[in-house]
Amino acid sequence: MANFAHQRSAAYGSVQRQQQRQQLLGLNAFDRHKKMMADYVNLYGGKLPQPQQTVKTDLDVLHEKYRFIRSEEDDSEDSWGARLAQRYYAKLFKEYCIADLARYKEGKVGMRWRSEAEVIAGKGQFICGAKGCDERRGLASYEVNFGYSEAGEQKQALVKLRVCPEHAMQLNYRKNKQLLKAQAKSQKRAGKERDAPERAKHGHAEPAEGREADGGEIVAGIILGPSCLGRIKGYSQAIWPTAVTLTNGKKYDSLQTFNVVANVGLIFFMFLMGMELDRSLLRRKWKHSVPIAVSAILFPFGVGVASSLWMYDVNKEGAAIGWGPDKTAFTLFAGSSMSFTAFPVLAAILTSLNLLNSEVGLQAMSCAAIDDVLAWSTLAIASSFSKSGSPVDGLYTCLLAALYVAAMCFLVRPVLVWSHAWLAKRNLQTHRYYLCFIFIMVIASAFTTEVIGIHAFFGAFMAGLMMPTTAHYADELFHRMDLVVMEVLLPLFFASSGLRTNVGTLNTARYWGLTLAHHLDGVIALNVGLSLGILSQRMFTMLILMAVVTTIMTTPAMCLRSQDGGRMVDGWGM
Predict the structure, then answer these.
(1) Where is there biased composition of kind Basic and acidic residues (predicted)?
(2) Rounded (5°) CA angle 135-32-164
């Protein structure tokens, strides 16, 4: 009899399992989940979220009050339904996670396992897995690497995160931002490369458009200065008066006023140079670029330092009795002036050769940027030694400069980034008041470095480095400043270099053979050296003349190359 009862129960249980399976297959995923969780809670405890109104069916009443309908399998925790519910719950517990996206803009996502109530309710599986979100529609699944601690041991797990479209954008915010930035840069570079052959055919080059004219501006200054027209009797006093007495009794020097305006052009040009450096490129390439850049700068810097030991005495010849610059400042100046890479000119050449986006072009640009930063920093140190007059004071100035750089990096830049992001949301990043604030910031930064004991150009350069450089904002700011700085103020700076050049001081062939400057970026360094008293008038003239000659040679060479066709073989110009 017992054997018959057992067989009857097994047959009935098999039929019931088939019916349960068919019932589960007929449900959708969410209803099947609720059924499994209900079975799990009934058998193993826990709490189900109660609906607002519970309606019992006749079958529920029969199951509660009439024992004869219940099978022996229903009372056993080893039944097929119980085992299925337990396996389903155990699988879900570490398959999905909950995410906190409050700091998504910083690229930080907090994750945790789901609680029992969340597993039963379907939070993170059928409801958005973002903290505080109850959206059920349009959920997308992501596999995320979840690092967690269990029993004091650090573990990693690949889990699922299901979020709504809004939180999916937050989850991928950093990635999408980088893709958009890279896409904007590639479109900008593609546009420049597309126009480069036509521009090169007419002797133009991007992005250093118009830079070849700077040599002519220096020549114009030389003609207007003491080298040519200045030799005419009465010309200098009539055009460039140096001792005019004003009504208040003060002496007025027209050249000094001209140089002040020219230095304003230098300050804003250095600001644009700082903005022009691609910091993202430096971050991507620094591991390979730093060793190359340092090795590339060591040779010219060493040549400059070695030549300074002999040129120091030549620099003092013809100067006033007792005049002489600080030897440390002169040595650092000679090394740094030989180390500049003519960054804009290099960019123009690579663009005209369609190499700017190649591996060679990117490597060359990153190395040139690092070399220029090192060269300008060395020139700033030379400026501090020249103004202080002693090594101890020079080191003190360098310490103040280091504190200034730290303040710019950790105080000023976060404020600029935050203000730019706040204004960008309201489309006010190019508002005139904000642009006025930027101009004031540039002047204040330049003034600070001048007070510290370093030339004002370094403060303007640092202000440019700290600026946010999103593609649209950088283009708009360059467009607004380019006309005034590059076409008005900077030509005055180069013309002032010519006005201070006196070819008559080169009265022997020996001095004509000492022209060592190699490009117009060095002209800025030469003017800094003259204003700081590191260079004499004669040495300044020698170096300026060579800068003019090498710059004027650049444009014909580029035109000849574009006329030859400039075939490209494997990415290299032939």
Answers:
(1) 190-211
(2) 15
Q: 149 CB contacts (<8 Å, ≥6 apart)?
A: 155
- Give whole-number Cα distances, 274 to 215, 225, 496, in Å: 22, 31, 23
Tokens of 454: 């370093």
* pLDDT, tens digit, 9 for 90 and up, residues 484-504: 787 778 777 777 766 666 655
- What is the sign, positive or negative, of the torsion defined by CA atoms of 207, 212, 213, 215? positive
Give me the pLDDT at residue 347, please.
Answer: 57
Position 67 pLDDT exceeds 50:
no
The Cα–Cα gap between 319 and 538 comes to 8
* Token digits of residue 541: 């003239």
pLDDT of residue 444: 92
What single letter denotes the amino acid at residue 443? I
CA distances for 442 relative to 21, 370, 446, 462, 490, angstroms: 75, 22, 6, 9, 16
Copy the structure tokens of residue 565.
Answer: 């066709």
Give the separation between CA 515 and CA 526, rounded to whole angstroms: 12
pLDDT at position 428 over 50: yes
Give 380 or 247, the one with higher predicted confidence. 380
Q: Cα 287 to chain center, whole Å? A: 16
Domains of the chain, residue spans: 20-92, 94-171, 183-241+252-562
- Evaluated on CA atoms 320, 323, 327, 330, the torsion sign reads negative
- Scan for tokens 């896409």, then name that residue: 183
pLDDT at 566: 44
The β-bridge partners of 157 are: 146
Nearest to 330 by CA among 392, 373, 377, 383: 383
pLDDT tens digits, residue range 305-337?
787 777 776 666 655 555 566 677 777 777 777
Q: What is the pTM of this model?
A: 0.49
As a whole number of angstroms, the distance between CA 106 and CA 528 comes to: 41
Among 89, 146, 162, CA closest to 119: 89
Closest by Cα among 468, 464, 447, 467 to 456? 447
CATH class of 183-241+252-562: mainly alpha
CA distance 274 to 466: 8
Average pLDDT score over the chain? 69
Q: Could you tell me if 95 and 129 are in contact, meaning their C-beta atoms sit under 8 angstroms apart?
A: no
Three-state DSSP at 151 gives coil
Per-residue DSSP letters for 189-208?
HHHHHHHHHHHHHTT--SSS
The tens digit of pLDDT for each residue in 116-147 reads: 788 878 888 888 988 888 888 888 888 888 88
Q: 160 pairs with which residues across the strands?
A: 96, 143
Determine the residue type at 364. Answer: A
Q: Which of 372, 373, 467, 362 is nearest to 420 (CA)?
A: 467
d(CA 374, CA 506): 32
Q: How far apart are CA 277 and CA 419, in angstroms?
A: 21
Q: What is the DSSP letter of 27?
A: S
